[in-house]
Amino acid sequence: MPELPEVETIAASLRPKIVGLKIAEIRLLLPKLLRGDPEDLRKLRGRRIEGVRRRGKMLLMSCDGGLHLLFHLKMTGQFHWAARRARIDLHTRLRITFREPGPELRFRDVRKFAVLRVLVTDRPLESAALRILGPEPLETSSAEFGRLLRTRKGRLKSLLLNQAFLAGIGNIYADEILFDAGLHPLRRAGSLTAPEIRRLGASVLKILEGAVAAGGSSIRDYKDADGMDGLFQHAHRVYGRKGGPCVRCGDAVRRLVIGGRSSFFCPRCQRARA
User: Fold this and answer.
1) Which of 27, 95, 122, 195 has a 20 to 30 Å separation from 141 between CA atoms?
2) Is 27 a catalytic residue?
3) 3 is catalytic
4) Of 15, 48, 53, 261, which one is the catalytic site residue?
5) For 121-242, where are the alpha helices, taking DSSP H only?
6) Which DSSP string do the residues of 13-53 spell out, in sequence order?
7) What CATH number labels 137-265?
């Protein structure tokens, strides 16, 4: 599933292409993609796209008149900037054409898990779909991160995946963050010392900023709107590396299942407390 760095990269690749364009037509090719009334899509005809941004793992396209398209890419959602006469891929679920000449925007989703909502509001970040999210990790100070962490008692891996705690972190980056911080995924948040909290907060920023700079991680399906792969998968130190040598100590990377999710860690560099 695209996480914060991937969705941030997609937003950045879409912004110069579509901001300022007026929507001519939105063609919904998979009805279940849309949560809501199809008539809401028709309200977007003639609307100018004013902004593209990320919130958590979701992408928000905002138009004039307080209308917004909110995409949750789920497992395999992708945007393609395609020539209007280009062949339509079997997995294309949505097409957006513009009044201006040039390419169209297509949304592709192999697994059919993605979700689209139309928001009609001047305050989209306060909508029901977005207000449940926690703070943005890249916008949270070290002091605020420490305060948030001290209110929690759960396991670190599960906590980092909790979108109500921090928005945008998924399985890949939670593992990489915990390895960078030298913390076991089963450690309880309430057991962390002040230096460990500071170290974890620094690792959140380091890993996410590095991944955004690298264009995200392309492991299976992810590409940006230009069809480009991310590069951060080459910097993964534990994720998906079960049995391989730890890049720090040489011990074998191990895998745990926590809350139904695979977790990769080094048992020597990320020791569990007794």
Assistant:
1) 122
2) no
3) yes
4) 261
5) 142-150, 156-161, 171-181, 194-213
6) HHHHHHTTPBEEEEEESSGGGB-S-THHHHTTTTPBEEEEE
7) 1.10.8.50
In the chain, ranges of CATH 1.10.8.50 domains: 137-265
In the annotation, is 2 catalytic?
A: yes
Catalytic residue among 54, 57, 117, 241: 57
Annotation says 57 is catalytic: yes
The CATH topology of domain 4-126 is N-terminal domain of MutM-like DNA repair proteins (3.20.190)
pLDDT in tens, the chain (274 residues): 799 999 999 999 999 999 999 999 999 999 999 999 999 999 999 999 999 999 999 999 999 999 999 999 999 999 999 999 999 999 999 999 999 999 999 999 999 999 999 999 999 999 999 999 999 999 999 999 999 999 998 999 999 999 999 999 999 999 999 999 999 999 999 999 999 999 999 999 999 999 999 999 998 889 988 889 999 999 999 999 999 999 999 999 999 999 899 999 999 999 987 4
pTM: 0.95
Residues of the chain with CATH 3.20.190.10: 4-126
Q: Could you tell me if 255 and 242 are in contact, meaning their C-beta atoms sit under 8 angstroms apart?
A: yes
